[in-house]
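Example 3.2
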Amino acid sequence: MGKIEPGMKTSLPLWQRCRSLVCEQIWPKLSTIWKDSQNSWLDWVTVRNSVVIVTLTTTVLVVALRKIGWTESSELLIYDQFTQWRAIAETDDRLLIVGVTEEDIQAQQRYPLSDETIDRLLQNLEAHEPRIIGLDIYRDIPQNPGREQLMAYLQGENNRTVTVCQLSKGDDDIGVPPPPGVANKNLGFADVVIDNDGVIRRSLLWGRPLPSSRCQVKQAFSLQLTRHYLTDENIEVKPSEGTLMLGSVPLTRLQANTGGYQGVDAQGYQILLKYHSPDRVARKVTLTDVLQDRVDPSWIRDRIILIGVTAPSLNDYFYTPYSRGQESNHQMPGVEIHAQMISQLLNAALEGQPLMSTWSDRVEILWILGWAGVGAVLSWKINHPLHLSGSLAIALLGLAGSSWWFFQSSLWVPLFSPMLGLLIGSSGVFGYRSYQTEKLQQQMAVRVKQQEKDLKLLQTFLEEQTQRQDTTQLESSEETKTWTATEGYEEDEWTQIAPENTEEWTQPMSLLGGRYHITKVLGAGGFGQTYLAQDIQRPRHPICVIKHLRPLQTEGNFFQVAQRLFNTEAEILEIVGQHDQIPQLFAYFEEHQEFYLVEEYIEGSSLSEELGQNHCLDVDRVVALILDILQVLSFVHQYQVIHRDIKPSNIIRRQSDRRLCLIDFGAVKQFAPHLDEETERFTVAIGTKGYAAPEQLMGQPRLCSDIYSVGMIAIHGLTGIPPQKLRQDWSSGSAIWHHLVEETVSVELMDILDQMVAYHFRDRYHSAVEAIDALKKLG
């Protein structure tokens, strides 16, 4: 077997070379891509699509509740309320109701009325040439005297009267038969459909009598009268391909799951009953009025005459949508129910008024889906509970208003179900966000503890270095800032005066991280640098800001701690950057043992330009200013994150909307310890004298340290004097400033600012929310 000498080319079999290529190069890359795609997918599902997931889940839940009938009673309640709110129509003068009242019964001294009385009533009406008469009184049993005369009239070929019978309901109920010998064209069943709550909302137009029923009539009393009336209008009532037609007008058949109904008994041919009015669907006269000829003949001629009982003692009364919520037990006589049905059909056939209709199941599900999505989106977009409640209230009003508008247009659209979807969708996303926030806060608490631990380690390393180099004179220069007003960014506070040899800083790599093209150096120092760059891997190459951080040491434990601290702070910045008024962190990476943060570029001008030297702002403007900053801090502080360097130069007035944006979180400055001029020791304490709280300058910042800084900004704005130039009260350590503004600033505002900038942190507001509430109470 030969051996391979140095410099010789190896000749492996093709399969071995392919195996080597796949195992050593292709497979590792595919594994990395797969892991990245999995992470992206999980992020897409758990964050971006939580609204979609909640919306779909809510829709399924609400639809399931509809299917089991849980929402039906609420939908019917809304239907009744909408019916009551609808404008009352004018009396339908095509109809006349002849009611048998209690007085009529007393006058006749009997009930049932005699056949003779009924015959006289019909003859008197017939004399005035009505178009059709409907007798809604059973005449199956003889009521002498006058039976023969009445039967002769009802059985006549040219009589204009339709009489009633009652369909069998099954079991022992065999129904009520019609008068004997009456032609089918003059018969109609008087049955009405009553919902489970006792209310009539549907009209049964066509039935299928049971074989045992003594009433074998298929058409309803109201439909027969309508058909006779429309015959003279040359409009035919007939079924066509399973749909009942009034001429060219289809009567949409009610299904088991129509509108708010779920699993309702929809046997026969039923439609929704569109009520005309609660008590004046037609003119009303009494039996005695007709018998004594006290009725205007024009009320009868060419009209539909409905005869029925209206005496309460006869119990022919029914609940309607108008009954609900009434002080008295409001019910409607059966004869008026029939009049409501007839008026609805005549309006559709002759005047083109739409009948009550509904959407299909699919459209209703989409309706519910849409409103569930609205609730989910509102909860996702709006953080403040009060603002969210207001937005949901507006959405509910919009939903109710649109449903009412549809109802006015004779379209019954579900309201309770989408309302339920809206609230459940909103609650679902709100609960998910609360859970995510709590989980995030727990993670942030761990990171903040790790951050404090690493800061102490850094301080220990620096103290050790100071002891080793006690013969070395360290020089530090005061932090400087150079603003470029057109960009709205300045040299960051963590950058120091650069050493003499700064060529490597002023000539940065033209491409960082393989994608960021440096266009400008905004600031440079001994430990850091700020660039303006373009992201060449994104469409239109958007501008971003890159902060370049150089650790003090790149070897040993110091660098390991700094590296860990950098990753922790980048994760924190990524979370707080979700707020609209904080620059978003796009990326962070490490190259050549140096750290880079890629952040959103915010175009605008710094607050330091608004304040200036010896320039006082009015009180309202200062209050609005600090309220805006405190609102941002309330978001940041809920994660226990401290900004550490709030001052005018770190607040940008965004050009697009004039909102104040908080930039340059002090956390990033921990990677660039600076030399304290008083102690001549390196320290990680961050802050700007005058704006930084006392405990912060000692390296022990708290959440209320940021509140102190905001208060000093307010005092700067009111007095026009930078805080470091204000005199101090040596007994309390507080700034002396009241005498400068006592003529323009109220005592209440002074007290609030004093509490914000109290020397001891225990005397300050404990949270930004407390300070906000105090300021809002000023009115």
